[in-house]
Specification:
The complex is a heterodimer of chains A (537) and B (231). Chain A is of the alpha/beta class and 537 residues long. Chain A is built from 14 helices and 24 strands. The two termini of chain B are 40 Å apart. The chains are: A alpha/beta (537), B mainly beta (231).
């Protein structure tokens, strides 16, 4: 076959390129990544005082948690020694998962799997979202709104600003945060306890992207003297677990490693504004049990850490649902609301989980004013809703140090504006210090009116509605939304939400559902201005 | 402008009269139905577009000008998932080829006359079943894969274009279709490496382009290029 000289020059390049890709695809068996789970671990000789920091010990004693449990015990060294020669590299070891992440060829992986002390060997080969969407800078929002909506003034009057609470932030990087004026008060008082980059295994985390910088500012940043988050007095652990340009499972492993590190250092709260979606999972996998990161987050919660995660930014995309680890049962998942009007912001991912558990749990502003690598600005995403709630939780915890993580979890839910009403867009709504401190004013705000057809000889059930009449005193615009938002949902006989609505009402009599669609046995739940009521059809 | 204001006024009044505006409505029961269609679901259709160039120059006597964008394809591909690793499918595509024959004294195809330029254009409808092997655990995405695909194509039009100078210096452009030397049916095999929505392909035409009794040198058989999943 004749080839022209030009082609002869190009051909090796093409062949090299194709073979490189083919090699990447087919020859992965030269060294693939696996998670090796062990059957057991040695249960004696564990010195908790030596392993944990004094802060971690203090937290455990305060929350009446055992000093250590099975999860904290180290992985059996003998097992590691035995798999070491069969693996190309041991990447990391997880005490919580009792597992090691290794690189090995397929043949050796099979040999490892056949060892008597191995529980299972799972091949690892994911999409990450950094829960941030396009930035909107052209319409500056009121700086203090994001914190005032959650009741920062009441917290201020009580001196609640997260003091003594240790918050770990897992993110893509904290570029610029080491010099940014937003964090000067934290640096001055040495409240950055530790930092670690789990991607590069170094201590410096002030690189890799400024997403973490913005997230951190929504917990504790300041612009001049105005707080951007609620926990300006908290202490911090900063961990880099993500690589912004790559979407690999290593990030999930890094997250679990970082959670173990945070636990060892006594973290009370973990805030992570990331999630994994369709590159590795299907929506039906969002059950809290499938994704490695969700399993890690559940263990972190069992260890007494309050894990707070962004719901995700796929609400207006095909994926639409929440992303791991926001699917884990004991993770406080935070959705986003519009700052203008207090209801679901279009990109915020919807619940429920695939096994129909409530997610998101609560919501906060999805468009915030925050610190950026250089300066300040507006930014969009549930990434920034999550740290606002982390700050809120830190303030509550500071006030109630004897409560455990799940009690704080419930208290945050209970302090939210819709509670006990919930839906899969807002959860229980936006937490607010007034609700937390004074409880909710549950004065009836509406009456539910069943249609009366007793005097009608003929009627069309399509045209006769179950209605709500808003009381005169409650027919005013909301303080924060500037609207009158009425929430309602239809519950079927299996006690599942059939559909849910948010209405902006501008008259006192509201038509909710026609008689034709009101199935006997179904229920309707209605919430308007803190008042919640359920009726059966 | 006046009309716009009136319409806006009307809409505003309508809203006021209606008194309730639905800001959000969701049906979780419907929303949580497991999809059957998607990149890594049971069924997946996607359009694609591809460009290719001849890798070999063709047989002596029909060597082509290289490098040159010789192939353009637009098609629709169906994928039926068997499991996370294996899939099968087929595709329909419209493909056009354009080969510029080098004009030198060794040229024998389609004749020995040396022109300024000479090109073969042909337009195909292609049908191709394929077998796919996917690599790596993944969610509802195409992922990384390798395809083997025999193909069969029907030439729906063929044009031989020639540009030459007459002795008086004038330039003549001639187009000939309905030639009797070009096969109407071709077949071959295509191999593809897909990295998500970008696919690198190589194809080998097994059948001859020209009827055997014409004794013409073969134009390039091997084409390589890139395709883009348009979804």
């Amino acid at each position: 076959m004749y080839c022209s000289p030009k082609i002869k020059k190009i051909l090796p390049l093409i062949i090299t390129f194709l073979s490189f890709n083919l090699n990447a695809l087919i020859c992965q068996n030269t060294a693939e990544k696996y998670i090796v789970y062990f059957n057991d671990k040695p249960t004696e000789k564990f010195d908790a005082y030596n392993y944990f920091t004094p802060k971690a010990i203090e937290r455990k004693l305060l929350n009446q948690l055992p000093l250590y449990d099975w999860y904290d015990l180290p992985v059996n060294n003998e097992y590691l020694n035995q798999i070491n020669p069969l693996s190309t590299k041991i990447k990391c070891i997880s005490r919580w998962l009792n597992a090691a992440v290794i690189y090995a060829d397929r043949e050796n992986a099979e040999k490892i799997a056949s060892l008597p002390f191995i529980s299972s060997v799972e091949p690892q080969n994911s999409s990450l979202f950094i829960a941030e969407t396009d930035e909107i800078d052209e319409n500056p929002i009121e700086i203090s709104r994001q914190t005032e909506r959650m009741g920062i003034r009441k917290f201020d009057s009580l001196g609640a600003s997260g003091k003594g609470i240790l918050i770990a932030i897992f993110d893509v990087g904290f570029s610029g945060a080491d010099k940014h004026p937003a964090f000067e008060h934290i640096r001055k008082s040495n409240r950055i306890i530790k930092t670690f980059d789990f991607v590069k295994n170094i201590e410096d985390v002030y690189h890799g992207g400024s997403h973490g910088t913005s997230v951190w500012s929504c917990i504790a940043g300041k612009k001049d003297s105005i707080a951007l988050g609620l926990a300006t007095e908290a202490n911090f652990l900063l961990a880099r677990t993500e690589i912004i340009t790559k979407e690999i499972l290593a990030e999930e492993e890094n997250w679990v490693m970082a959670a173990e590190w945070a636990h060892k250092n006594g973290a009370d709260i973990i805030n992570s504004s990331l999630g994994y979606t369709n590159a590795r999972y299907f929506p039906e996998n969002m059950n809290g049990k499938t994704a490695l990161i969700s399993r890690g987050a559940s263990i972190a919660a069992k260890k007494g850490i309050l894990v707070i995660n962004a719901a995700g930014n796929d609400g207006d995309k095909v994926w639409e649902t929440i992303a791991a680890p926001a699917d884990a049962d004991s993770v406080l998942t935070v959705g986003g609301v519009k700052p203008c009007c207090d209801y679901h912001i279009n990109f915020s991912s919807f619940g429920p989980t695939s096994d129909l558990r409530l997610k998101p749990n609560v919501a906060a502003q999805g468009l915030v004013y925050c610190a950026k690598e250089n300066g300040y600005g507006n930014i969009n995403g549930t990434s920034f809703s999550s740290p606002l709630v982390a700050g809120f939780a830190a303030c509550i915890w500071q006030q109630n140090k004897s409560l455990n993580n799940m009690e704080i979890f419930k208290l945050v839910e209970k302090s939210s504006n819709l509670f006990p009403y919930y839906d899969y867009a807002h959860g229980y709504g936006i937490p607010n210090s007034t609700n937390y401190l004074s409880g909710k004013n549950t004065t009836p705000t509406f009456d539910f009116i069943k249609p009366d057809v007793s005097n009608l000889q003929f009627y069309n059930p399509e045209e006769i509605f179950y209605k709500v009449t808003i009381n005169d005193s409650a027919f005013t615009k909301d303080e924060f939304s500037g609207r009158q938002l009425l929430y309602y949902q239809i519950i079927n006989t299996a006690d599942k939400i059939e559909n849910y609505f948010v209405l902006n009402v501008s008259q006192q009599e509201i038509e909710l559902i026609p008689m034709s669609k009101a199935i006997t046995g179904n229920k309707i739940r209605i919430s308007y201005k803190n008042y919640f009521k359920e009726f059966k059809f | 402008m006046k009309n716009c204001i009136l319409i806006l006024l009307f809409l505003n009044i309508s809203l006021q009269i209606n008194g309730q505006e639905i800001l959000l409505k969701k049906d979780p029961a419907i929303d949580s139905t497991i999809e059957k269609k998607g990149p890594n679901r049971k069924h997946f259709w996607h359009p694609f577009m591809g460009f290719g160039m001849a890798v070999d120059a063709g047989e002596k006597g029909a060597t082509v000008v290289q490098p040159n964008l010789d192939q353009f394809a637009l098609g629709l591909r169906y994928k039926r998932r068997i499991n996370n690793i294996f899939s099968v499918g087929f595709e329909f595509s419209y493909t056009n080829y354009a080969f510029s024959i080098k004009q030198n004294n060794q040229k024998t195809t389609p004749d020995t006359s040396v022109n300024q330029k000479q090109r073969f254009y042909y337009y195909d409808l292609q049908l191709s079943p394929y077998f796919r092997v996917n690599f790596g655990k993944r969610g509802n995405v195409l992922g990384n894969y390798f395809d083997m695909a025999p193909y069969y194509e029907t030439v729906i039009a063929f044009t031989e274009f020639s540009k030459y100078k007459l002795t008086d210096g004038s330039v003549v452009r001639a187009r000939r279709s309905g030639v009797n030397y070009f096969q109407r049916f071709n077949y071959g095999i295509q191999a593809r490496i897909g990295l998500k929505k970008i696919i690198f392909f190589g194809q080998y035409r097994i059948s001859n382009a020209f009827y055997g009794d014409k004794n013409l040198a073969e134009i390039p058989r091997i084409t390589a290029g890139v395709q883009f999943v348009l979804r």
